Amino acid sequence: MIVTSPIAELRSWTRAQTQAVSKGWWVLLLTGVVSILAGGIIVFTQWSVDDLVVFVGSLLVVRGAMTMFSVPVDGSLRTWSIVLGVVEVFVGIGVFAWPGPALLVVALSIGWLLLFRGTMAIIGSITARKLVPYWGLILTTGILEVFVAIYLLGRPGLTLVATVLAIGFASMLYGVLEILTAFEVRSLPQRFDQLTEERGTTDTRRSLDPVG
């Protein structure tokens, strides 16, 4: 999951900060691969409602656990990763436990989760746009999540097929964006060094404002 802070916590980057963020690139890559595979399974499998509930709930719990170990891509506090990961885990558990029509529970649970995540991503990308070179990818991800959330929340009478297609294709597209962002995060220290050299300094430990 692409984690950002909606608060402009970071005013400048240091070499150590870019290295700390880049070390978590593999988690983002792994979650991207999981998202694509899960989306493909969702779209191309013949589901019953109960089976879809089990799969989506399990997926949310797994992704939430992975998010808790990720590093925010904008250099903010890891607390944001833990909070968002816990939220995703609880939503996954709620999909299993919540009484009522199973398909409606899936649509509403995913919808509210995506609305929350997407809003945070949009705000976080805008507030960090002067510092984070890949803020456009984060913004695109947030817009995608909000769009899918509105679709799911605005149609309480969704059929099983419509729900499957919406969640599946959104998961695959989100996974692609996660993978692209992962490689951007991986190269962050190198971009820092390049910009530092362009500004005529050899002290790569000093603050640089902005990176992007």
Kindly state the number of beta strands.
0
- The total tally of domains equals 1
- Roughly what is the average pLDDT, rounded to an integer? 83
Uncertain residue segments? none
The secondary-structure element order is HHHHHHHH
Structural class: mainly alpha
Radius of gyration: 18 Å
Helical content, roughly? over 70%
Q: Beta fraction of the residues?
A: under 5%
Put simply, the count of helices is: 8
The major sheet is characterized as:
none
Write a short abstract of this structure:
With 212 residues, the protein is an all-alpha fold. The chain has helices at residues 15-22, 25-44, 49-68, 79-97, 102-127, 135-153, 160-186, 188-198. It has one domain (23-189).
Describe the structure.
This protein has one domain (23-189). It is 71% helix and 0% strand. The protein has eight helices and no strands. It has helices at 15-22, 25-44, 49-68, 79-97, 102-127, 135-153, 160-186, 188-198. Helix 3 (49-68) runs antiparallel to helix 4 (79-97), helix 4 packs antiparallel against helix 5 (102-127) and helix 5 (102-127) runs antiparallel to helix 6 (135-153). It is elongated, with a radius of gyration of 18 Å.
